[in-house]
């Protein structure tokens, strides 16, 4: 069934999402004013790839208050978690996540066409599972997410911190043009596509429409803007090689975002698309698997981020057109990661799962795909410290105040107590159910398996 038709039930999803009760935490609630003491832990310094000596870490409110010996009076007033020499590290961060569309399959949308509350429950449940896999923050780069984020922040749904982009912004026949053949142009025929109505995308042509689309997302609370600058593998109308948006249109998006103190990230694979985006002032590129050395070196000189993935080979169950379009992307992946590392590009990692909820359980395992090009220390730095630096690029539009991706005094208390040493055996982070004994987000215990 056409994608736009499948998404029709989501037009009501978030009106109901606030009514979904928070799911059971599996641990007793902690009083809001209670301190939390991790006693006898080894702090993983992901910024420098070091595991420290045994120490204590005191959390007060939602911040790390002290690392080191804690006075007896402070310890007596705190809830104590016995570390027994285990590793305490920052929460994981997925820099390319789709909070709504990763929770739902197209079959879900068909089966639940008359029951949007069932879709809301699936999204809420997957939100919690994301958090329980140790991902305490995600950068959502496209889809209806604002109400989910508000529900999480209000404690009505459990999930990670979300940096939302809102609806992707696409030209006609671009990667975000999700219309079916029977859906005609809004500009000529006056009716928005269903994908636009439910907040998945804006189809915007020309400087004025691009400005309006960016400002609509900013009005709703976007922390960054996602623009489609090139062809995609999962879209119907655009070959991977095409370049999307003129320089003037792209500059309009950048100017509107910068006026709000934030940035534009673009979906793009090719040299031509990325070079145009760099000229327009874009600060981040999603994907980039078809880039050459010269363009990666240009990105490094300009301080432009590359947020990419560890893609797996196509499966027989995948749509034949998508399998064919993915071939050059998969072939370019190994070259891109190696060249980007050598060029000194600022790198981030994310999964980019869409409409395959069964795949979500492997979110942690996909991190291991980076081992072909990076050491465990480099990988742990990327999925915590470096991804947090990318989140911070939102500046004043960041929805949360404080430092993430580190275990340091004054930083936000998003923490994982891990069985084993990830620096020596990165495999431990691929099994969060077994190896993440305690998960803390914003100073609150969301999992305690001890």
Task: Put the structure in a nutshell.
The protein has 15 helices and 17 strands.
Please tell me about this protein's structure:
The protein is globular and about 70 Å long. The N and C termini lie far apart (46 Å). It folds into two domains: 320 residues, TIM Barrel (Alpha-Beta Barrel); 101 residues, Roll (Urease, subunit C, domain 1), CATH 2.30.40.10. The chain is built from 15 helices and 17 strands. The N terminus is likely disordered. By secondary structure, the chain is an alpha/beta fold. It has a seven-stranded mixed beta sheet with strand order 3-2-1-4-15-16-17. A five-stranded parallel beta sheet has the order 10-11-12-13-14. A three-stranded parallel beta sheet has the order 5-6-7.
Key traits:
Amidohydro-rel, 17 strands, seven-stranded mixed beta sheet, 2 domains, five-stranded parallel beta sheet, OTAase-like, TIM Barrel
